[in-house]
Amino acid sequence: MFEIRKNFNNAKLHCESINGTLAMPKNATITRKINEMVFTKRNQVYRNQFYFGLQKQSLLEPWRWMDGTIAGTPLSIRGGTRNNGLYHNWKGVEPNNARRDDFCGSLFTWHGGWNDIYCDACLAFICEQRTQCTRPNLQQGVTTNMLAPNSYDIGTVITGFQCTDNGAQLVGAHSIQCVDGTWNATAPTCETRCPRPVAPSNMESPVELQDFYRVGTSVRFLCLHAWDEGSGNAAIECQHDGTWSDNPTCVTRCQRPASPANMRANGVLQDYYYVGNRVEFRCVDATDHLLVSSMRCSWDRTWRGEPACVKRCGRPVFPANMRAQAALLNSYQVGDRVTLGCVHRSDVLGGNAAIECQDNGAWTENPTCARRCSRPHNPVNMRPEVVLQGFYGVGDFVRFLCVHESDRLVGNAAIVCQDDRAWTESPTCVARCTLPNTPARARIEITNNEQQLYEVGEEITFGCVDSNDEMSGPSQIRCQANRRWSHVVPTCLKRCRGPNPPEGLVLSSGGNVQEFFSFGVTITFQCSNANDEMQGSSSMSCQGNGRWDTALPVCLKRCERSGRFYYVGGRTPRYSCPNADDLLQGSAVSTCLDDRTWSSGVPSCGKVL
Fold first, then answer.
1. Residue 200: CATH number of its domain
2. One domain, residues 51 and 151
3. For the chain, how many structural domains are there in total?
4. Containing domain of residue 300, as a range?
5. How far apart are CA 521 and CA 542, in angstroms?
6. pLDDT over 90 at 544, yes or no
7. How much is the pTM?
8. Mean pLDDT throughout 184-192?
9. What gap in Å lies between CA 354 and CA 73, rounded to an integer?
10. In the chain, what percentage of residues exceed pLDDT 70?
């Protein structure tokens, strides 16, 4: 029994150094003897506890004695054990694994009960003398066919150690011998080696890597980029199964971004940002246009997105004689264009029609509109002296002529393009009529106001050259607004003097013959005595030359006898009696006289008495 304080492992080594081991009270008898010893040391040793030879490797492993055999345990959920029916002297709720790593056994001086405690605690300890060698503690992966269940007699030699993993190498003594209750050498171990580790993504080792590493060897990795954030254990360890522990990782980060020109961050900038984080910016000048507001940390540690503020132009101002081709906005971005045009279609645009918003917030120079007059309309009844153009500059003039040469031009023949895009007052053409033709054969003459041109409303009066002629048409004509006379020029037609009909010839219409007859008049005659015979045409018409188209007819006097007619001087056939014996009484022949009577009556036949 040793009152010096050691942790469990050092206490175990101390016992082995004196050819012993930590005490193993495997039954009640040994427990009672040990309790009698430790009771005398109550209140004299640290925490009134002594280490004894009981230990476990992990929470779910069973409790084992120093010779490797399993010790008894009660049901203890917190302690990670179940009752196995073997001997134990746990007291109360022990083992309770109070610190989650209480894997070593101690006993109390007051009652000798067992307690589980963390193995780093420094306590007094109890050793027992060996009379045999306990079963050697072989590391995992080491085996031999000479292992006994529990102990070995002094002088026993164990050989034939082998590694269960063909890839592992046996390290240490190939045989051990039991001498004075201890083994003369530590059992060999199987060393599993790990191959050269592969550097995790975005990480590197600060030292040159080897081809192989022993179990327990660590290799440290660092992030390639100093601003990346390491996650996990930076050192990986070669494990007994020849694999490396889990690799660390580097969480990609972006460094603090620089603020773009004319911009500031919304908030305080951090030193580092994770992938996907965004940084929002705003324009230093509130009147600027925020083109792009944020940038994003990308997987390649660069910032994506180019926040930018651009100057804006205000609503453009231009002369009143110009207008925009589209609705105007209150502000524009750099590069935006506004197309201008002249308010008056007749004006000519000078310079670039499109003004552009520049990066200094100003517009390029406005174009100009030179004032012009549009093509003038021809005044009524007028024509331009030369072919008209589409537009005219201020001061240009256009001369007009009357379409009708007979018209009278009133006003200035030339109109001038004025500064207000209007032409001076146009001239007018007053309609006039020209002197009408009066052919000689018309036998007409102007009796008043004879001139070459006549104003609208003026009249001409005509008369016949021969007073005996008859005028055809109105004797007055008037000049009209359409430059035409109200009537055609009249003509004078010669009249026919009334014929002197001979005796016995009269007008069919009755009445006396007129002194004159108009052109085209037809008169018809008839014999006043129905027995008379007319020789010649019964009708005659007055011609334009003042002559009749035919001579007067004549009526030949006739006498009628027995249904027959005889001209004056004509004689009847000789009369005779049908009966020769009868006597003709009267003249045998009768002559037609000028008064249409017969010279003698009709004769008769009588009997001779």
1. 2.10.70.10
2. no
3. 9
4. 254-310
5. 5
6. no
7. 0.35
8. 84
9. 97
10. 96
